[in-house]
Each structure stands twice: as structure tokens, then as C-alpha cells.
Automatic annotation (TrEMBL):
It comes from Volvox africanus. InterPro entries: GDP-Fuc_O-FucTrfase, Nucleotide-diphossugar_trans. Keywords: Carbohydrate metabolism, Fucose metabolism, Transferase. Residues 777-788 have a biased composition (Polar residues). Belongs to the glycosyltransferase GT106 family. This is O-fucosyltransferase family protein. The lineage of its organism: Eukaryota, Viridiplantae, Chlorophyta, core chlorophytes, Chlorophyceae.
Length: 919
């Protein structure tokens, strides 16, 4: 078969572009692949996309399909092609452009009239091949000259596709643009919307024309643009939702029709202004009148000015005929368009020819691509693909129905989860961890990164972030001054509870995350992943990996132990719900008269989040695989590793000095998963010397000479215990002795008094630490009490799995560390370990003697289970805890461990915050 001239020209001009998919050779091929499209406009696009990929895989020429209009021949929701409902590809899409674009991308495509007759094809059903049809087709039909297959959508597993493959698939979608006539219709429709100014949404629905002065009025107030809502209220959609939610396969499907009856107020939650014309897309021939009236009443009550296809297209299609002939614009097409216009105006069957459902869907879809803002129902593939295409192009896109986007589970490469973190320009000593977080996140190709940034946006770190594709959001909360005023009143008391109170910059920086729901750039998202900057990502993450149903408001996982309150260093946030609660949340936050310490919940933003959302947090805890700590045993299923507590430079310092501001967490890290994680981490922190040294230190742990090296360093002799070790712990000794003299019960509050006594920041950089999401554990992490053996051996609990992580990364075996060597080493490094072990022995003796130490961890799990079931026992609880936790909470709330230089503190709080100075 000869290539047409256009294809040959494009192939020659696009020879270099073909490198986008190196496995493709630009040469005429006599083997062809003919395929059918799936039902529905969006599925047509997706099936063409996957057919192109299948043709590339099989090294065949693709034959352009005949599109099927499913406005006719509907039988049990299946559509059969016939002479009455087949639409030529060129009637909808720009066929010459598609052929040229595909040639440039490395795939030869031919029109149906150039293809062999249907009798030449071996017909193959892809159904038996499940999710992966490429290999069986190549093996069984590789020698067949011409192969015809049914719909190839979802017949190539996402795990088979590389980054280059996804770019090719996007190229296919981009090439599926409307033909010139359809584009002219769209241009005219957009212009007509600018001329309409209905007095109410009911008038807009009825097609009332605007007054002659409406265009000038629209231009004056800047509302000539339009927003688009894809409102699924058709009869077939109601039936689909009933079937969808009744599938019994263990998958939660809870969002098919959600918020549809509240559409007006729901759109307002996403910031869609009612001063802008709102185009409401639906297949109105199949909408019950009462359902339509209810939806329009909702929109009218919210003040929206509504336009529909019934308002625009009868006249637009008729007027478009006057555009005159063009490529592919023949007499038959013109006649059909004129007939369609008459039918729309009151003819017998508005679903014939160019008025069919799929042609209307095409017009709606490309109008949605032109809208200023687009919002729809994420269960619909029309909306889902629209969301993904617009977001890829940087256009605003949202969905009103909550929950997940089911299509993403099937094709994760089409969507990137929004990932948000905060940072500033005055914490250079923590930038190495930020670089590791960003590099590892980008390597997964599963995130769209955003940074809520404070400070100098021309600083090196801001420049670096932008170069990585991170979108910087400059945002200063409206409540900043009130917050600082509240904190300033009790700062001398609260600085002893958390180092976050040392400077106003640190406090403002950590509170930034409470404004996630009101940052304008993020208002298009239903769910975002927030993390501190001291994390790295081990695997790609899609929304469904967090488990279904998704959190009602916010979800976090525990800190050191499975107890409440939880750690805000990693959060999955439901922004519309948090936006709805925002005013009440801020009022509660600022109503605090304890200097922003929230009794029983902790200090600062983590405290108020735990307090305000306690019921939701307890009922839906985020799996620990998304907030895995290096001081816990190595977890090969972890998605996110969080350097919570000791940072890499703290751990390296522990190796070289024997000191740890986080007491036993440093030692636990080396006995736990740290060395495995460090081996992974260095690939993202390859430009930081300390992390490289930390990896070397981990390698040394496997050497039999390690103990001797440390004995020499500490001046120990053979057989000598800790008595010969120089006392290098200074102020930490008193706190450790207090801990050792207690019974077998050790509280986290006591453990962190070692960190508190030093309260150091790396390099003593003002404003660094947890204010940027990289700090030490705050006192909010101290509201638990556990026995020493629990503290040493508690394993990571994964509550609801990663969902599909097995296909993303292979299992990694943990490193093995000789326990005897580690024991000798830790005695050399930690003189206080012996005292702690004496306390453990004393506690064991007390238990044997009948003195029972409460198992608070077990009790917390039981309490969490009760709270998750909605139980509220006010007689047995106080502020969310049982009476037998009150002693722990007393230590927690009265914590006075962190040291502070009062003169430096006073000077810091009299100085204008760096964020304000930068502004």
C-alpha cells in the first residue's frame, strides 16, 4: 500500500521526532492493524490511543477506525455498528492532521479507503487475553498479514508502559483534534456565550437571548469567558450508578452520584464564580425534567448564569454552514448539518447524523477544553479524561462528586497526585533533605509538586525548585498577626514544650499547612498529599493506594507508637471538606488562650489539627507505609520514609560522638531499618557529604573490626564496660538518670527531654527545623507511655496496605547486623544504655512481683477502635482520652524539657519575621 503524499511528507519532516519512540521505524509496512472503538465518546478517544500503542508494539500500520454513534441501536447498553450509526472519522476529527502527527511520532496510519478489504483480515477477540494482549497477539498472530481486533482499551497493562510510552499516548490524544468545521462551530459557540447574559439560570435554560447591550456589559466586567460543569444527571447515568455501586467485589464505590443534588453550593466550594457564565454539559435528551429542574434551581439559588447546548447549538450549527467549504467539507456534510439544525429546532429525531450523541459529546468535550475552569463527575470517563488532559496542560480542572477517579486505577500514568510541602529561604542547612524529597518524588512520575513558599523567591533554593518543575505558591495567611499575638503572650512558657516557639518564622512556617484548603492554586483538587520536607519516596503513589473509602476530612498516621494524637508530617487532606470547615477551624485555632498549646493534643498546628479533626483521625488512620520511620524495622512495602526525629546529620553525629538529642531513637535507627533506607536515600542525596558518610557508617556495622575501632576511640580496654567510657553527655545525664530511676514505665515525654535539653538546630540557623517541616518531634509526640521493651521492639503496623505496590517495586531484604557486635558498639557509644537496661530489669522484677505496668499501647488500640465506631463515653473520657491515660497526659501537658536562652527568645520575638521582611 502506498502512503499518501501528506503522510510521506510528514514522515520525512518528522524523522527526528520519531526518536520519541525509538522502537518505531519510519518505513512503509504492509502489515496492518484494524480496530474497533469502544462505546462512548471518551472511550473512543481512549481506544484509539491504546490501538496506536498496540500498533507500535506489533510493528504494524494502524487503520483509522469508523466511529460509532451510540445515540442509536442501544440494546442492553451495547452498541452495534450499522449503516445508520457509523460516523466517519473525518466527520469528527481532523484526519489529515492526525495522520501527519502520528507519522512524526513514528506510527504510520492510513485511512479506511486505503486499507485492504475486510475479507483480508484475521479477526481476533482480545477478551481472552485480559489486561495484556501484546505478547499473545505477537506470538499467535505475528505471521498474519492483516489483523482486526475489537476494542483495545485496557489491553496493555500500565506496568508495561514506560515514561516514553506515556508521552507517545499523550501525543495520540493531542492529535485527535476536531476537524476544521467542528472547530468553527466551537469558535462560534464560544463567541455566542460571550453575547449572552441571561437574567437567571431558568431563562438561560430556556434559551432567552440577552439584550442588545449584554456584550458590552460582559466585556466591561470581564465575564466574557465561561466555566464548564459536566453534570451527570441523565437517566442512563442514574441506572449506571445503581449498577456501579452494587458490584460486590470488595472495592468501595461510593461517589457516583454524590453532591449532585447540592450542585450549586458544591461548585462554590471549588471557587467557581457566579459572575462568569456557566455552561452545563449533559445529554439533555435523556434527562428527566424534574431532575433537570432541581439541578437548575440549585444553580439559580447559587447565582449562576447557565447556558446549555440547547441554548447554543440549534443556531450555531445552522450559522456554521455559512462558513463555506473547506477540507473535507462536502455537500453531504453540509446537507446533514442543515438537516441537524432543523431537527434541533423541532424536527422528528434530534439524534440522527451530525446531531447524534457522540457528535454532541465531542462538541461538549472540546468546549470543556476551552473553558476557564472545568468541573465534572470523576466516575464518568468523559470527566476523568478531561481532568487529566487539562491538568497535564496546566489548566484548572476539578470534580464535584468527591472520592476517587476510578480511571486512574486502571491507567495510573495518566494522572499525577498533587503533592504539597512548605519551605522557606532561610533554612539552608535542611535543603539537602528537601532536594532528596523532590528528586525522589519526581522519579516516581506520579506527583504534581507544589511548594507553599515563604521568603526570597530569588534565593538559590527557590530557583532550584522551579528548575525541577515545582510550582511555588507565595501565600501569607490572613491570620498571621493574630497567631503571633497569641503565641507571643505565652512564648516563654511554650518554648519549653516545643522548639517551634523559638522564633515567629518557625511558628508561621509550620502553621502554613492549615491553609491548604484556601490556597487558590490548590482549590481545584479534592485530595492532596502533604508531607514535611524530610521525606523520600520509594514508590509511585496513586490516590487509591491510600485505601477506599478515602478520608472524610484528613488522615494521618501515628508518631512513635500507635496512639493518638497523630503525626502531621504526612497527611492526606480532603480540601473541599476542610474548606467548608475552614472558618470554624481558624476560630478554634485562635480561640486558644494557652499560647497555641492545645491541652491533650500538643503544640502549634499539629495540636489544633488533632483537636479539631479528632473523630475523623481516630476513625481513619493513614497506613504507616506512608509515614515509615527509620528507627522502626525495615519495611519493604513502605511508600514514604520520614526522617521523623533524628535527621541524617543527627544520626551521623551519634556515630561519631555517641551523643543523641533524641535519646534511644538514634540507637533504634541503627538497629532498625535506617541502613537499608540510607542505601536507597543516597541516590537522591548524592551531593551531600554527610549522607554519604552515613551510608559508610552503615557499611562499617557489618565489619568485625567496628567494635575495636570504637573501643579505641573511647579509650576502652578488653573486657571493660561503660565505666571506662568518658562522660560526654553533659546536660543530658541528669535527664537520663531520671529516666533510669523510674520504674519499667518510660514515657515519650521523658525520652524527648534529651532532645529538649539541647534543642539544637543544625548550624543554629534561625527558622530551620520543624518550621519547614524538617524539625525534631514536638511535645505532641509525647502523649503516650510504653514499656522499654515495647519502645525497643515495636514493629511498623500497616493498616490498609499499599494496594498494587507489588507491581511497582520488588521486595528488598533488610541488612543483617550482628547483634553482639552492635551490643558492644552501643555500649561504647551510649554510656547510658547500661542504666536503661538496669531500669528494664527492675521493671521486669516489679512485674514478676505483681506490680503491673499498664500496657498503654494496647489500651490505645482498643480506645481507637471504640472511637472509630463512633462511641462517645463522656463518663469514661475526658477530652478524648480515658481516665487511665490522665497521668500520661499530665506529663504531656506539663512538659518543660526544652531549654531556651530567654534573651535570644525575647530578641527573636521583637524582630520582624523574615517572611515579612522578605515581602
Amino acid at each position: 500500500m502506498a502512503e499518501d503524499a501528506a503522510t510521506a511528507t510528514a514522515a520525512a519532516a518528522g524523522a527526528e521526532a520519531a526518536g520519541a519512540h525509538s522502537s518505531v521505524q519510519l518505513q512503509p509496512r504492509n502489515r496492518t492493524l484494524r480496530f474497533q472503538v469502544c462505546n462512548g465518546f471518551t472511550n473512543q478517544r481512549l481506544s484509539i490511543m491504546f490501538a496506536a500503542m498496540l500498533a507500535v508494539r506489533l510493528d504494524r500500520t494502524a487503520v483509522i477506525p469508523v466511529l460509532i454513534d451510540n445515540g442509536l441501536q442501544r440494546t442492553d447498553n451495547n452498541i452495534f455498528a450499522s449503516a445508520n450509526n457509523q460516523i466517519p472519522f473525518s466527520d469528527m476529527y481532523d484526519q489529515p492532521y492526525f495522520i501527519q502527527a502520528m507519522a512524526a511520532a513514528g506510527l504510520r496510519v492510513i485511512a479506511p479507503e486505503e486499507a485492504p478489504p475486510m475479507t483480508s483480515y484475521t479477526e481476533v477477540s482480545l477478551v481472552p487475553y485480559g489486561w495484556s494482549a501484546t505478547a499473545p497477539l505477537a506470538q499467535q498472530y505475528g505471521n498474519e498479514l492483516h489483523v482486526a481486533v475489537d476494542c483495545p482499551f485496557l489491553k496493555i497493562m500500565a506496568s508495561e508502559l514506560t515514561a516514553a510510552d506515556w508521552e507517545f499516548l499523550w501525543t495520540v490524544l493531542d492529535a485527535l483534534r476536531p476537524n476544521p468545521q467542528a472547530a468553527a462551530v466551537l469558535d462560534l459557540a464560544v463567541a455566542r456565550m460571550a453575547q449572552r447574559r441571561p437574567n437567571s439560570s431558568r431563562e438561560g435554560a430556556a434559551g432567552t437571548e440577552a439584550s442588545s447591550g449584554s456584550t458590552e456589559a460582559d466585556a466591561a466586567d470581564g465575564s466574557s469567558s465561561f466555566n464548564f460543569v459536566h453534570l451527570r444527571i441523565e437517566n442512563d447515568w442514574v441506572a449506571h450508578c445503581e449498577r456501579w455501586t452494587s458490584i460486590r467485589d470488595g472495592v468501595v464505590r461510593d461517589n457516583c452520584f454524590n453532591y449532585t443534588d447540592e450542585i450549586g453550593s458544591r461548585l462554590a466550594l471549588f471557587g467557581l464564580p457566579n459572575s462568569t457564565t456557566l455552561y452545563v454539559g449533559s445529554y439533555w435528551d435523556d434527562v428527566d425534567e424534574s431532575r433537570r429542574g432541581k439541578a437548575f434551581a440549585q444553580l439559580e439559588a447559587a447565582g449562576y448564569r447557565v447556558v446549555t447546548s440547547a441554548d447554543l447549538f440549534p443556531t450555531v450549527l445552522a450559522d456554521a454552514v455559512g462558513a463555506g467549504p473547506g477540507p473535507g467539507w462536502n455537500e453531504r456534510t453540509q446537507t446533514e448539518t442543515q438537516a441537524h439544525a432543523r431537527e434541533e429546532a423541532g424536527g422528528p429525531d434530534p439524534r440522527r447524523a451530525r446531531g447524534g450523541r457522540e457528535y454532541r459529546a465531542m462538541l461538549d468535550y472540546f468546549l470543556a477544553m476551552r473553558a476557564e475552569r472545568f468541573i465534572g463527575n470523576s466516575v464518568s470517563t468523559f470527566t476523568a479524561l478531561g481532568l487529566l488532559e487539562r491538568r497535564r496542560r496546566g489548566q484548572w480542572a476539578a470534580y464535584y462528586n468527591g472520592g476517587n477517579i476510578p480511571l486512574v486505577s486502571l491507567m495510573p500514568g495518566l494522572h499525577r497526585l498533587p503533592w504539597v510541602f512548605t519551605y522557606n529561604s532561610w533554612s539552608p542547612d535542611y535543603e539537602y533533605m528537601l532536594r532528596g524529597a523532590v528528586r525522589s518524588a519526581l522519579a516516581t512520575r506520579s506527583f504534581t509538586p507544589y511548594c507553599i513558599f515563604q521568603g526570597n523567591e530569588s534565593s538559590p533554593i527557590a530557583t532550584w525548585l522551579r528548575a525541577q518543575g515545582v510550582r511555588l505558591i507565595s501565600h501569607r495567611p490572613t491570620w498571621s498577626e493574630k497567631l503571633l499575638e497569641k503565641a507571643r503572650a505565652r512564648v516563654k512558657d511554650n518554648v519549653h514544650r516545643s522548639h517551634l516557639f523559638k522564633t515567629p518564622d518557625m511558628l508561621l512556617a509550620t502553621f502554613q499547612r492549615v491553609d491548604l484548603p484556601v490556597v487558590p492554586v490548590l482549590d481545584q483538587y479534592t485530595y492532596v498529599l502533604y508531607t514535611d520536607a524530610d521525606v523520600y519516596f520509594r514508590k509511585p503513589i496513586r490516590l487509591d493506594d491510600f485505601g477506599l473509602p478515602l478520608p472524610h476530612s484528613v488522615s494521618m498516621s501515628y508518631e512513635l507508637f500507635e496512639m493518638f494524637p497523630y503525626n502531621a508530617g504526612v497527611m492526606v487532606a480532603n480540601l473541599p471538606v476542610m474548606r467548608q470547615n475552614y472558618a470554624a477551624f481558624i476560630d478554634t485555632m485562635l480561640a486558644n488562650d494557652n499560647g497555641l498549646f492545645y491541652t491533650n493534643y500538643g503544640p502549634a498546628d499539629q495540636g489544633i489539627i488533632n483537636k479539631f479533626y479528632e473523630a475523623d483521625l481516630r476513625s481513619r488512620m493513614l497506613s504507616q507505609v506512608f509515614n515509615t520511620k527509620p528507627y522502626k524495622p525495615f519495611d519493604p512495602n513502605a511508600f514514604i520514609v520520614h526522617f521523623h526525629g533524628p535527621k541524617p546529620h543527627d544520626l551521623l553525629s551519634f556515630i561519631t560522638t555517641g551523643k543523641c538529642d533524641f535519646f534511644s531513637l538514634c540507637e533504634s535507627a541503627f538497629l532498625g531499618g535506617l541502613c537499608n533506607y540510607t542505601e536507597e536515600y543516597v541516590q537522591w542525596i548524592y551531593d551531600d557529604l554527610e549522607v554519604l558518610r552515613l551510608r559508610d557508617a552503615c557499611a562499617w556495622l557489618g565489619s568485625s573490626a567496628v567494635a575495636q575501632l570504637f573501643k579505641k576511640k573511647w579509650g576502652l580496654q578488653e573486657g571493660q564496660g561503660t565505666e571506662g567510657t568518658p562522660n560526654a553527655v553533659s546536660d543530658a545525664t541528669a535527664a537520663a538518670e531520671h529516666l533510669a530511676n523510674r520504674t519499667g514505665e518510660v514515657t515519650q515525654a521523658d525520652a524527648y527531654k534529651l532532645e529538649a535539653l539541647s534543642g539544637k538546630d543544625r548550624g543554629n540557623t534561625a527558622g530551620s527545623g520543624a518550621g519547614t517541616g524538617t524539625g525534631a518531634p514536638s511535645v505532641s509526640e509525647t502523649a503516650t507511655s510504653v514499656s522499654p521493651d515495647q519502645a525497643a521492639g515495636a514493629a511498623v503496623t500497616s493498616s490498609d496496605g499499599g494496594g498494587g505496590s507489588q507491581e511497582l517495586q520488588g521486595q528488598q531484604q533488610p541488612l543483617t547486623i550482628d547483634a553482639q557486635r552492635m551490643s558492644r558498639m552501643r555500649r561504647a557509644l551510649m554510656p547510658l544504655v547500661a542504666r536503661q537496661e538496669e531500669a528494664e530489669a527492675e521493671g521486669a522484677a516489679r512485674r514478676e512481683a505483681g506490680v503491673v505496668t499498664p500496657d498503654y499501647a494496647q489500651h490505645a488500640r482498643e480506645h481507637q477502635k471504640a472511637a472509630g465506631a463512633g462511641a462517645e463515653d463522656n463518663g469514661g473520657q475526658r477530652d478524648g482520652v480515658h481516665k487511665d491515660e490522665e497521668q500520661v497526659l499530665m506529663d504531656f501537658n506539663n512538659f518543660k524539657g526544652i531549654g531556651a536562652d530567654e534573651e535570644a527568645l525575647e530578641a527573636a520575638w521583637q524582630t520582624l519575621p523574615a517572611s515579612s521582611a522578605a515581602r
